[in-house]
Amino acid sequence: MPDKLLIEAIREGLFQEMAADERVIVLGEDVGKRGGVFRVTDGLLDRFGEARVIDTPLAESSIVGVAIGAAINGMLPVAEIQFLDFIHPAMDQIMNEAAKLRYRSNGDFECPIVIRAPYGGGVHGALYHSQSIEALFTHIPGLKVVAPIDPYDAKGMLRSAIHDPDPVLFLEHKRAYRALRSEVPDAPYEVPLGKARTLREGNDLTIVAWGWYLQEALAAADEFMAEQQATIEVIDPRSLRPLDSDAILASVMKTGKLLIVHEANKFGGLGGEISAIVAEDAFAYLDGPIMRIAGPEVPAMPYSPPLEQAFLHDKHDIRAAIERLAAY
Amino acid sequence: MPDKLLIEAIREGLFQEMAADERVIVLGEDVGKRGGVFRVTDGLLDRFGEARVIDTPLAESSIVGVAIGAAINGMLPVAEIQFLDFIHPAMDQIMNEAAKLRYRSNGDFECPIVIRAPYGGGVHGALYHSQSIEALFTHIPGLKVVAPIDPYDAKGMLRSAIHDPDPVLFLEHKRAYRALRSEVPDAPYEVPLGKARTLREGNDLTIVAWGWYLQEALAAADEFMAEQQATIEVIDPRSLRPLDSDAILASVMKTGKLLIVHEANKFGGLGGEISAIVAEDAFAYLDGPIMRIAGPEVPAMPYSPPLEQAFLHDKHDIRAAIERLAAY
Amino acid sequence: MTSVGSGGTATIPGIRAEAPDAATSNLDLDHGQLRAMFELMLLARALDERTWLLNRAGRVSFAISGQGHEGAQAGLGYAFDTSKDWLHPYYRDLTLVLHWGMTPRDVMLMNLSRKGDPNSGGRQMPGHYGSRRLRIVSSSSPVATQIAQAPGIALASKLRGEDVVTLTCVGEGGTSEGDFHEGLNWASIHRLPVVFCVQNNHYAISVPMEKQMAVRHVAERAAAYNMPGVQVDGTDALAVYRAAREAVARARRGDGPTLLETVVYRFTPHSSDDDDRSYRSREEVEEWKARDPLIVTRQRLQALGALTDEQEAEMQSRVKASVDDATDFALAAPLPDPEEAVTHVYAG
Amino acid sequence: MTSVGSGGTATIPGIRAEAPDAATSNLDLDHGQLRAMFELMLLARALDERTWLLNRAGRVSFAISGQGHEGAQAGLGYAFDTSKDWLHPYYRDLTLVLHWGMTPRDVMLMNLSRKGDPNSGGRQMPGHYGSRRLRIVSSSSPVATQIAQAPGIALASKLRGEDVVTLTCVGEGGTSEGDFHEGLNWASIHRLPVVFCVQNNHYAISVPMEKQMAVRHVAERAAAYNMPGVQVDGTDALAVYRAAREAVARARRGDGPTLLETVVYRFTPHSSDDDDRSYRSREEVEEWKARDPLIVTRQRLQALGALTDEQEAEMQSRVKASVDDATDFALAAPLPDPEEAVTHVYAG
Ligand SMILES: Cc1ncc(C[n+]2csc(CCOP(=O)(O)OP(=O)(O)O)c2C)c(N)n1
Ligand SMILES: Cc1ncc(C[n+]2csc(CCOP(=O)(O)OP(=O)(O)O)c2C)c(N)n1
Ligand SMILES: [Mg+2]
Ligand SMILES: [Mg+2]
């Protein structure tokens, strides 16, 4: 199977879904001629034309609003928000409209839209090109939120998301676009939403991590295991809502220890929910505190290299947390 | 000291702050002639005039945007969002602008605004007049979020919020406006932001609850204590960000058991964060799972009485949870 | 109260205003259709009045009204092909949804939040209409969100090459929202088959026009989108019909959207939770009630020889029977089961 | 490329367009001021060019440019009283912030994200200006949010009875955002002393005008708010000055806001992360570069007898010295300390 970059896997997924189903349209700022500011949609306009690949006005609320309307009338729109940091003007359309349409109509209407958005930092993007605000969306019933980081997962989950009858926020870590590769089949395939992936099996400690920090967590876990007898289970939830809490609970029931790692700030981050699920449903199995490594409580990532570095965590921080937790 | 309703305490607070400081202005939909759809701002227009009590266009983003601009230029604006359910169009102004202004300017600018918003359900308000979405805001560094339910607290915290140099989201439970009374001094006073209030002292179990459900939690705790030997500590955080985690941790270190109660849906609610803080920093003291009673995972509260009832919890549900937890 | 619309004809630079007299000539509705249109208005009014009675009797906990808007909505509705066109309504659109196929029973099931209410199964407050079968989009409460969605509905129709027009409505207050701007901008850039109807009743709850916008006529806002802005006297159903017919024809021709402002008045408080006496004088209300669209339309039909007293009496008794039936039916219907509170969050 | 602005004079129904020739007469700027204005433009250009050099050399990781906008901004800026008026800028406003009192050293500290950068202490990307002392509001990245805030600044000035005007700028792309609509609406309802300047460079990154709006001229959008919409050739600083002076005078008189559209072109890609070749032809870029505001202004000043070659040579050497000094100063300045990453979240 050929190796593909994350960005290639997503682009290929978009091509294939558009080719397979006329109902799929793509819309967003600069997605057409420019092929997206990250070039994710590069080539779509040439292949599918202006009617289905739409360069929109600079207006996020209407990007999502139009996607909702088109979905109501039979299309499968894939909207792009240029940076997750700019999704706020569309929050009303996402949270009050897309997420509530099925419920409020007692199941009469549905809203099969996908909203793709690059997120995350470590790319000198500063406050407004680095945000990891997934927790604002994972709190919303009616919405699905996924954040695959592995190219294989991304292509398969994109297909699942497009064909999912509910609205899906599809998060793409921008630092990973051209940094991560994996084996990705050329043919279309699905990876189900709502299922975690276990990247390392282990017995002594569980790490739940997503986004870019999954790489750091894996590196820290591998280093630790190379030096110690203990084994670490590393889980990528991939899907943040619905969350595969069964997989997480089963792992913690086995290992007794949980470390959660995410880039978003800690207070109110999704890590808190994961911790709470475990503290409620697997309390008796816990052999130590549930620990979290997360972003600092500052409004967003700063720009200047030393400041950005101070914001970010790496495998060393995670390794230190592993050691503290393993010592319990 | 005279007894006052929650709505009276807030109104009195607004009057007194406007009278004491010309920089305080009030703006929002229907806050002027109509005195607010709940009548919270009733009488302000007559007393302070159109220049300082502004009936705004129906446009939440600009209500907050204008408040930010006025605050930058020396005013202390108190904006009203008619229902918390309609705050979404203003999320960009709140989260990306107000909350980040101090940080992004390296402390050069500040944003002393207050955004008042009625929230919560149980009033036949259905999906869009019942929401408890405080967790979307408590995740945001730079923002403060308070939800006093006791009239005494509300008046004192409103004063603190208005004079606080940072943006404060001030949540008022609409079901409590005319249902709850307490002793409220006529003269102005402050209740600090960031400090919890302990309503019952106890040794065997801690309940953290806010909003309307605090009443239900108190009723359940009192009933339980009347029948059993055990004592329950009941804490109202009042301030949700900053959260008085010291008070909560100290209580759980004493009681060993924690039950969290809130109206918002559970997944990603602030209860998860509270649980996680305890599971991280007071793990060794825990004698049982951390339990949460919260709203169901549906998009928002439905309208028809049997549906609304099915959504809501009451003291019986809380009592049942207390019994389960006490049994550990 | 603004002066426009009061007389019916407004001459606004750059805005085409419909003259009410012109509207009665050159009509393609026969007398039967005119009577049906009038009966629709009578039915909407009667259903609405019954709802307020039920509200006062404590049977309905919330009422929000289209009283005063019936003429504008009836004229508007008749310009569309309800067998294929889409409606994305707002909460005052009772007349429109009845025209689109919703029955009085459906409406009363909603008002009484009964099981089987086709709008939302009792989940939403009254006034939140919706039916996929009828192509009426389920509406929410946040004002003006529909304006950003309607272009998407029309885009899909256009992509499939269908001859389908989308109608969406909002109050004049809703035109202050960012979504109003974004939706009109989208529709106009892509020349989408949408008719945006602003039902201007001069108040957003208590906030009068002059505190909502600096233009005197909502239709002036069309200039920002290079689309026709048409203001029409909304008390005159036939004038509205003519203006709407042109907007629909324009949309079907592929020439794009129109902003249609119907100047009306709401005869009730904002909702059953409101008291309008603090912000509207009783004289102002009475002045507008003298131009009740039901009165105006009755006179117009009589002048055209399309309506006799006898015919109206028959209509009134049909309407009453229908409202009685709907009320009885809905009152007898069960409330939703508590278990229904947690279904339909996600598919499957 | 739209045709408007190319010639300078546009006649748009309902919109006042400034004729460039009229602009040179009836000016209240003396020759010294005209030269200072030109030198400001030269300085902005030179600073910007140096920043791109530093970017290519890997010293600056992000650059976003005002090249091509200098004439419009210089003309605009000179119409304000920078000792008391407020500026809520956008990321291309280098010329404006220099005029408002920011120094080249300040700018280079920002571009190199050094400790002591007065804009944000190195926290924000280049192009995010701000200084409380100078009454330049700290700007964010989300496009058009400033448009909803500027009326609030002006409201405060008005409430205190101050004779202070607020200027805020945005690209033509930003006019599609809901906040643009809401901000103009507010300012006009309350007749607030604001000047909204849209710097129309025909593209929002890659998206051309005709995909952003259905009107041909941004200034047409003013009609929706009953405020004057003025389009002016932004390559001609003096024409802009005249138009802006009128807008400022109107604001000071208490007559309310103005929407001023300056038609310009951006000479660089959107930012150092962009490659504009996929969406703009090289011919189009060259055509506009022939009308570089620096060339146009130089010619105008020479024609007025306000600028000799010698004077320009002196300016150029002052500018070069200033840019060199700023670069050296900033390169020598330390980076922020890591501990600074977590301060200034809340007061105290
Ligand atoms: C986004 C939003 N903000 C506030 C409200 C509360 N609200 C409901 S209707 C209304 C006034 C609407 O006025 P208008 O658009 O003129 O319609 P009308 O009721 O007059 O027909 C308001 C403020 C809301 N529903 N949505
Ligand atoms: C709300 C928001 N959406 C998207 C972006 C990404 N973005 C930055 S600048 C820009 C284009 C702006 O175009 P325009 O307003 O015309 O200004 P110009 O850059 O041409 O001067 C876009 C899409 C953003 N910064 N903010
Ligand atoms: Mg209205
Ligand atoms: Mg532009």
Present the secondary structure layout.
The complex is a heterotetramer, with 2 copies of chain A (328 residues) and 2 copies of chain C (348 residues).
Chain A: E1 3-5, H1 6-20, E2 24-28, H2 44-48, E3 53-55, H3 60-72, E4 76-80, H4 91-97, H5 101-104, E5 114-119, H6 134-138, E6 144-146, H7 151-163, E7 168-173, E8 181-183, E9 197-200, E10 205-209, H8 213-227, E11 232-236, E12 239-241, H9 245-255, E13 258-265, H10 270-281, E14 291-295, H11 305-311, H12 315-326
Parallel strand pairs in A: 2-3, 2-4, 4-5, 5-7, 6-7, 10-11, 10-13, 13-14
Antiparallel strand pairs in A: 1-8, 6-12, 9-11
Helix pairs in contact in A: 1-7, 3-4, 8-12, 9-10
Chain C: E1 16-17, H1 20-24, H2 31-56, H3 70-77, E2 86-88, H4 94-99, H5 104-111, H6 145-159, E3 166-171, H7 178-189, E4 194-200, E5 203-204, E6 207-208, H8 209-212, E7 229-233, H9 237-252, E8 258-263, H10 282-289, H11 293-303, H12 309-332
The complex binds thiamine diphosphate (2 copies) and magnesium ion (MG) (2 copies).
Structure report:
The complex is a heterotetramer, with 2 copies of chain A (328 residues) and 2 copies of chain C (348 residues). With 328 residues, chain A is an alpha/beta fold. Chain A folds into 2 domains: 3-183, Thiamin diphosphate (ThDP)-binding fold, Pyr/PP domains (Rossmann fold), CATH 3.40.50.970; 197-326, Rossmann fold, CATH 3.40.50. Chain A contains 12 helices and 14 strands. The longest helix of chain A is centred in the N-terminal third of the chain and has 15 residues, at 6-20. Chain A is globular and about 60 Å long. By secondary structure, chain C is an alpha/beta fold. Chain C has one domain: 3-Layer(aba) Sandwich (Rossmann fold), CATH 3.40.50.970. In chain C, 41% of the residues lie in helices and 9% in strands. Chain C has helices spanning 20-24, 31-56, 70-77, 94-99, 104-111, 145-159, 178-189, 209-212, 237-252, 282-289, 293-303, 309-332, and strands at 16-17, 86-88, 166-171, 194-200, 203-204, 207-208, 229-233, 258-263. In chain C, strands 1-7-8-4-3-2 form a 6-stranded parallel β-sheet, with helices on both faces. The termini of chain C are far apart. Mean pLDDT of chain C is 94; it is low at 1-14. Chains in contact: A-B, A-C, A-D, B-C, B-D, C-D. One magnesium ion (MG) is lined by residues 171-173, 201, 203-204 of chain D. One magnesium ion binds next to strand 5 of chain C.
